[in-house]
Amino acid sequence: MFNSFHIYILECADGKLYTGITSNLERWLLEHQTGYRETAYTFHRRPVKLVFQESIGDLFQALHYEKHIKKWSANKKWALINGDFDRLKILAQCQNDSSSAFVSSEYVPKKLRGK
């Protein structure tokens, strides 16, 4: 049984970002790098570079966090990667009357919130 799950973001050779989740980051990163799965998004975008990772102990929280980040624009992901939470808040501002004005702090990794 694994103690934590890793949300990770890879930067691909073509500049695209890939967000994923795993219980074994080293093995999964090696698989992305070596092209273990020909059908994987990263297969034709190698080499890839790990630019962000956060460990979360609860599987359901980790899956929720990964799903949330996957919906973000590349600009929002780069703000997260760079720890630029002022920019992240600006990018998360309402685009219409029914949206939330700011990203909830529950989606910001604890170590990056300064707690």
From TrEMBL:
Pfam families, per the entry: GIY-YIG
Membrane-traversing stretches: none
Entry-linked PROSITE patterns: GIY_YIG
Residues of the GIY-YIG domain: 3-79
CDD domains: GIY-YIG_UPF0213 (cd10456)
Protein's recorded name: GIY-YIG domain-containing protein
Gene3D superfamilies: GIY-YIG endonuclease
Highest taxon of source: Bacteria
PANTHER family, alphabetized: UPF0213 PROTEIN YHBQ
Family: Belongs to the UPF0213 family.
